[in-house]
Amino acid sequence: MTRARDFSCLTNKTIAPSILSADFWRLGECLDSLGDSTDVLHIDVMDGSYVPNISFAFPVLKAIRKNTSKILDTHLMIVEPSRYIPQFAEAGADILTVHYEAMTHHDRELKEIRKYGMKAGLTLNPGTSLSLIEELLPLIDLLLIMTVEPGFGGQSICENAYSKVARARKMIDAGPYPICLEVDGGINRETIASISEAGADLFVAGTAVFGADDPAAACRDLHRLAKDVCF
């Protein structure tokens, strides 16, 4: 059963602030500083094996869940993600996104995510071809295109990001499935309009939001820039 949340914002040029760029000492304050500027939080889970960095685990996710009604967009950058699907559901994830490159039985694992009441997301690294996932589109609610190499915040966007997002948009629009197209990496005031015009719906932004003096204002500004290309 899908969680009782309104996911319509996912296809409305929404900003998903990445808490990886927040001040961990003041995490609660950082999240409160967003106010109503967004309905989505992006949570990167890294194990130090799939990517060379370590981040949040279940206690942090549970604490965030207890204190917010925002959609928790949970991005797993870990080996054997299928082992932890029930725990992430119990911890409060609304969207569980797993890397194509880290999965073994793609169809079974994506179905399992949905079975536990979460939206199923699939992530592609910059060097992974879109052609590999065409058969999986009926099983996903969200496609996340990494626009940098995964593992660290503050990177510059990859050169092929815009064309890849445009091709992903065409692939999604050619089918009957209402899939959200998300981008993650190098999203800021200089890049968001172009990547939005290429077809992205949901934008992960870390430094551009939490590195600003006013995170809520920064989030609203990015949303405006992404929306402006639609008119």
How does this structure look, described?
The chain has helices at 27-32, 58-67, 85-91, 106-115, 161-173, 192-198, 207-210, 215-228; strands at residues 14-17, 40-46, 71-77, 95-99, 119-124, 142-146, 180-184, 202-205. The chain has 231 residues and is an alpha/beta fold. An 8-stranded parallel β-sheet has the order 1-8-7-6-5-4-3-2. β6, α5 and β7 form a beta-alpha-beta unit. α2 packs parallel to α3, α5 packs parallel to α6 (192-198) and α6 crosses α8 (215-228). The longest helix has 14 residues, at 215-228. The model has no long low-confidence stretch (mean pLDDT 91).
**Major sheet details:** 8 strands, parallel
Strand order of the largest sheet: 1-8-7-6-5-4-3-2
- How many beta-strand elements? 8
Helix/strand/pairing category: alpha/beta
Q: What best-fitting shape do the alpha-carbon axes yield?
A: globular
Low-pLDDT windows of residues: none
